[in-house]
């Protein structure tokens, strides 16, 4: 099989268009088309890039099958399994970063771009097993808005989350909401806080819950608790409580 036929076969096996292959080699679609028509052939540097991209030797790529087979037959090492990876990087750049970078596979693959998708993704918007950026989604995430099994950032959602505003099974933050929570202000099943805690079990200077412990405890199962009572306690113990937190406390108390 000649080079132009081999190139077309390899490209189609990856499911790439001529334009997509060209973007990965930093050449135009027309250049790839000429290679596949057999009117031109790539220079050595591009042949090396094609060889690495398709994970085959230059001999196999250029149609020198006899030499490739002879080399393989004298190789005493068992053939290695190819590591399946996929990578796409857009030619459009924003500063030094590609607009889109997709890189994932069976081995660790890092994607860096404005929009990044990969095993490890870093970008403004990123999706990956491990991801970091402004808006992140994945197994372990860090960002301004982070969603993941393990998440850290400004606003976080996850099984375990830490942030200014944290939501999770286990949540740590200034305002923490979840099953087991710890923060300045906490709302959850087991709530521990340095200022105000609301929960099944609440421990804080101002504590509101089925079981409440602190300087100003309010046990909602034993007494009729009013927001006026709680507001007086907040004024005494936590006078700098933001209005937004006071409103959340009022909504919880009045809904009981």
Architecture overview:
The chain is rod-shaped and about 90 Å long. The longest helix has 13 residues, at 243-255. With 256 residues, the protein is an alpha/beta fold. It starts with a helix and ends with a helix. It folds into three domains: 3-80, lambda repressor-like DNA-binding domains (434 Repressor (Amino-terminal Domain)), CATH 1.10.260.40; 87-143, no CATH class; 152-255, no CATH class. The strands form two sheets. A five-stranded mixed sheet has the order 1-4-5-6-7. α2 (18-25) crosses α3. The protein is built from eight helices and seven strands; from the N terminus they run ααααααβββββββαα. A hairpin with a 2-residue loop joins β2 and β3.
Please give the domain count: 3
Q: For the terminal residues, how far apart are their CA atoms? A: 78 Å
**How would you characterize the largest beta sheet?**
5 strands, mixed
Number of alpha- plus pi-helical segments? 8
Q: What string, H for helix and E for strand, traces the elements in order?
A: HHHHHHEEEEEEEHH
Report the average pLDDT across residues: 88
Overall 3D geometry? rod-shaped
- Extended strand count: 7
Class by helix and strand content?
A: alpha/beta
Task: Quote the beta fraction.
Answer: over 45%
What percent of residues adopt helix (DSSP H or I)? Answer: 25-40%
- Ranges with pLDDT <50 over ≥5 residues? 70-74
User: What is the radius of gyration?
Assistant: 30 Å
Which strand order spans the largest sheet, edge to edge or round the barrel? 1-4-5-6-7
């Amino acid at each position: 099989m000649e080079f132009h036929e081999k190139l077309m076969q390899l490209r189609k096996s990856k499911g790439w268009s001529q334009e997509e292959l060209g973007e990965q080699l930093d050449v135009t679609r027309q250049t790839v088309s000429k290679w596949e028509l057999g009117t031109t052939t790539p220079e050595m540097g591009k042949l090396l890039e094609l060889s690495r991209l398709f994970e085959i030797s230059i001999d196999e790529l250029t149609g020198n099958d006899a030499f490739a087979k002879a080399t393989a037959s004298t190789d005493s090492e068992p053939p290695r399994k190819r590591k399946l990876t996929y990578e796409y990087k857009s030619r459009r750049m924003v500063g030094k970063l590609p607009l889109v970078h997709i890189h994932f596979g069976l081995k660790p693959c890092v994607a860096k771009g404005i929009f990044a998708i990969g095993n490890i993704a870093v970008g403004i918007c990123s999706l990956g097993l491990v991801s970091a950026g402004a808006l992140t989604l994945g197994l372990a995430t860090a960002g301004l808005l982070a969603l993941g099994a393990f998440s850290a950032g400004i606003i976080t959602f996850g099984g375990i989350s830490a942030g200014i505003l944290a939501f999770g099974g286990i949540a740590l933050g200034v305002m923490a909401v979840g099953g087991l929570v710890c923060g300045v202000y906490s709302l959850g099943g087991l709530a521990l806080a340095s200022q105000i805690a609301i929960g099944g079990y609440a421990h804080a200077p101002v504590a509101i819950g089925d079981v409440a412990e602190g300087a100003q405890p309010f046990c909602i199962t034993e007494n009729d608790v009013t927001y006026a009572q709680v507001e007086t306690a907040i004024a005494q113990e936590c006078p700098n409580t933001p209005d937004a937190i006071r409103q959340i406390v009022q909504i919880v108390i009045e809904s009981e």
